[in-house]
Design goal:
InterPro entries: D-isomer_2-hydroxyacid_DH, D-isomer_2_OHA_DH_cat_dom, D-isomer_DH_CS, D-isomer_DH_CS1, D-isomer_DH_NAD-bd, NAD(P)-bd_dom_sf. By secondary structure, the chain is an alpha/beta fold. The chain is built from 14 helices and 12 strands. It has helices at about 15-25, 40-45, 65-70, 75-80, 100-105, 115-130, 135-140, 175-180, 200-205, 210-215, 235-240, 260-270, 290, 305-325; strands spanning about 5-10, 30, 55-60, 85-90, 105-110, 165-170, 190-195, 205-210, 220-225, 245-250, 270-275, 295-300. The strands form 2 sheets. A 7-stranded parallel sheet has the order 8-7-6-9-10-11-12, sandwiched between helices.
Length: about 350
């Protein structure tokens, strides 16, 4: 009997046990010790006595970066020639540098659709909370300042949605989910900025504007773009200066899209009135000053931290790996590789 193909599972799964058991019927699913370092991992990949030197499919979680480091050019070059796919548990895959994997004809997959609803729900919670100053009231309540400090713990008045312009930076899957969730609350104006204008069907009634116009008109800046070399610090001191005084910023995408120090400075000055943040530039490390600001409603990256969504994400990763074994192809290849022809030449592994 021939050996089963080897699937390396980097990081733990909390759910989807059945999907992984199913994969284990046709694959040898292996893991690495939680104590392993990047250097040790790279060495084992080259050790002919290690199963890592014969691995064919790799699945990974964002947390596994603590062991392997980024999936960068060094790591891509260190992988054995047997590797045909890397399957990531998440919509954002900024921990993976696609180009070196593309050069090696290694497919990269993510979970692009399953996170949209949960992330959009989180975004709307943060947006409404930041608009209404709920973080300030909550902090003062927990500090025991009610009722002695007066009505609403003397929190500053918040604002209603009526008449406000919501600027959606990145009207993609998640951006559109946020848009549709916000409409019933009474927001009257929606504008967006993408690299390119979308078709009218994809705009969902949202108005396309230039970046400068976007910054000038938005009462609320809703950040929903992926992190890459083009979007890193897209929101910085210069772009913030172009925004309205008292703007509200909400980010559930990636922290480094915003220059965190510039945002902190603007929060301190009042240029940014409040912020709703699920992501941070150097998470899990966050500056003490930013954390101490009562006008910041923050979460520890909980956008998809729910049973149903996480289960579906983990199932899809297992299904991606299984599909590679059965057909040679991942189910959800990342956009940068969708127009490549070489994935079509990959043969089934079993």
């Amino acid at each position: 009997m021939s050996e089963k193909p080897i699937v390396l599972k980097l990081g733990k799964n909390a759910f989807a046990d059945e999907a992984w058991k199913d994969l284990g019927k046709i694959a040898d699913v292996i893991t690495i010790p939680e104590s392993i370092t990047r250097e040790q991992f790279l060495q084992e990949l080259k050790d002919p006595q290690s199963k890592l030197s014969r691995v064919q499919v790799i699945t990974r979680t964002a947390r596994s970066v603590n062991n392997t480091g980024r999936f960068d050019e060094e790591l891509a070059l260190a992988l054995p020639s047997s590797v045909v796919a890397v399957c990531h548990t998440g919509a954002g895959y900024d921990q993976i540098d696609i180009e070196p994997f593309k050069k090696r004809h290694i497919q990269v997959a993510n979970v692009p659709d399953l996170v949209s609803n949960a992330t959009a729900d989180t975004h709307v919670f943060l947006l409404l909370g930041a608009l209404r100053n709920f973080s300030i009231g909550n902090r003062r309540l927990l500090e025991g300042k009610w009722p002695e400090s007066g009505p609403a713990c003397a929190s500053p008045f918040g604002y209603d949605p009526e008449g406000k312009t919501v600027g959606i930076l990145g009207l993609g899957r998640i951006g559109r989910c946020i848009l549709e969730r916000l409409k019933p609350f009474g927001f009257e104006n929606f504008i967006y900025h993408n690299r390119h204008q979308l078709s009218s069907e994809e705009e969902h009634g949202c108005e396309y504007v230039s970046l400068d116009e976007f910054l000038k008109r938005s009462d609320i800046v809703s950040v929903n773009i992926p992190l890459n070399s083009s979007t890193h610090h897209l929101i910085d001191a210069e772009t913030i200066e172009k925004m309205k005084d008292g703007v509200v910023i909400v980010n559930t995408a990636r922290g480094a899209v915003i220059d965190e120090q510039a945002m902190t400075d603007a929060l301190r000055s009042g240029k940014i009135r409040s912020a709703g943040l699920d992501v941070f530039e150097y998470e899990p490390k966050i500056s003490k000053e930013l954390l101490s600001m009562p006008q910041v409603l923050g979460l520890p990256h909980m956008g998809t931290h729910c049973v149903e969504t996480r289960n579906k994400m983990e199932e899809l990763v297992a299904h991606n790996a299984k599909n590679v074994l059965l057909t040679g192809k991942v189910l959800t290849i990342v956009p940068e590789l969708k127009n490549e022809t070489w994935p079509n030449d990959v043969k089934p592994l079993i």
